[in-house]
Design goal:
Layout: H1 2-25, H2 27-62, H3 72-79, H4 83-95, H5 97-109, H6 115-122, H7 130-141, H8 145-165, H9 185-220, H10 227-234, H11 236-242, H12 246-255, H13 258-267, H14 275-300, H15 322-341, H16 348-352
Helix pairs in contact: 1-2, 2-5, 2-9, 2-15, 4-5, 5-6, 5-13, 7-8, 8-12, 8-14, 9-10, 9-13, 9-15, 10-11, 12-14
């Protein structure tokens, strides 16, 4: 095990050194990749993720999700999940890839669930959001909302199948459960905005970094064909935009990509994650999603339109729309609430942070 860790460490160091050399030799590729990542964050990630993150974190911190515990007799018997944990899984279906990890991390941090149990639930709480699957992938890339809904149904159904296959054991670590009182409403807003901005900033950093890496792999794939496959597993958004195969797109949405994996590892610091198990279920999620997509398309008799690799990812469904304006208004409102409800320390840096 020690040798494996040493090998991984040296491999990562070698990769970082190689990236530094490439940035010096080919700075334009780095610039273009970073700009692409920044645009992706500004037009898609921040408007769709940040407001939702703040809202769901506020529900968690205020204790509103605890009311879902009334469903525990049913959810525990069917799925091995308490009512509030099942609520987190449902929110992961709505919020996108990192939301499930963030909420489970919040629950583990506040000792509402053990880190080991949070790691088991994480295996089926990594899901693409409906806005991304239907609007961006279905309508924006494939030109069909119906295909987007087929992908979404397959994606969510695959998560439920994995939930049944990896059925968690009923919680037995009662000592982990904390009865710590929840903060007041003003503090909940402050903490939710702070945590939401922190996780969003972290995710944006990963997206920009992997956009740069993808730019280099795409450039050198002309000389080394094997890099094409590496590019497909790095960042899910750019990967789905480059393929015209709906079944492979379905797999990629379930697999999520190495960039999303890193985002989840960053957001789940209090979760005990078994990496091999996590990777296995990501691959399994992709395979089941692809099979279900094929079954639904064949059963419905829907004719899949011909899609070429020249199709480019479109931000039109997110950019210059009321959704972006509403998102900015929500962000501004939450920022003002956090500023005026926070106790001032008299120091500029502390007051802003």
């Amino acid at each position: 095990m020690k040798r494996v860790n040493t090998f991984i460490k040296f491999s990562v160091v070698a990769a970082v050194i190689a990236l530094l050399v490439l940035i010096v030799i080919k700075p334009d590729i780095c610039k273009n990749g970073a700009v692409s990542g920044i645009l992706l964050c500004g037009r898609v990630l921040i408007p769709s993720l940040f407001p939702f993150s703040v809202c769901v974190l506020f529900l968690m911190k205020s204790g509103m999700t605890d009311y879902a515990k009334k469903l525990s007799p049913v959810t525990t018997r069917l799925l091995g999940l308490s009512g509030d944990m099942f609520c987190i899984v449902l929110l992961s279906f709505l919020g996108g890839y990192p939301i499930g990890a963030k909420l489970l991390n919040e629950a583990a941090k506040n000792k509402k669930i053990s880190p080991k149990a949070a790691g088991r639930i994480l295996n089926f709480s990594v899901n693409a959001g409906p806005a991304f699957v239907v609007a961006a992938v279905g309508n924006g890339i494939m030109g069909s909302k119906k295909l987007g809904y087929i992908l979404l149904i397959s994606h969510i159904a695959a998560s439920f199948i994995i939930m049944l296959l990896a059925r968690p054991h009923p919680e037995k670590d009662k000592a982990e459960i904390s009865n710590k009182p929840y903060p007041n409403t003003a503090d909940c807003f402050v903490l939710s905005v702070s945590d939401g901005s922190a996780v969003t900033l972290s995710l944006c950093a990963f997206v920009i970094l992997f956009s740069v890496i993808s730019a280099y792999t795409e450039y050198f794939s002309a000389y080394f064909n094997a890099l094409v496959y590496l590019s497909n597993i790095l960042e899910v958004t750019t990967a789905v935009a480059k393929t015209g195969n709906i079944y492979f797109i379905s797999f990629l949405l379930g697999f999520a990509g190495i960039s999303v994996w890193c985002q989840i590892m960053s957001a789940g610091r209090y979760i005990k994650i078994n990496f091999l198990s996590f990777a296995f279920f990501r691959i399994l999620h992709g395979i089941i999603s692809s099979i279900l997509t094929a079954v639904i398309i064949k059963a419905s008799g829907f004719a899949v339109p011909c899609i070429t690799n020249s199709v480019k990812f479109s931000f039109d469904v997110f950019y210059s729309t009321p959704a972006l304006s509403v998102s900015l208004l929500i962000m501004g409102t939450l920022f003002l609430i956090s500023v005026f409800s926070k106790k001032q320390a008299g120091k500029l840096l502390e007051d802003v942070v």
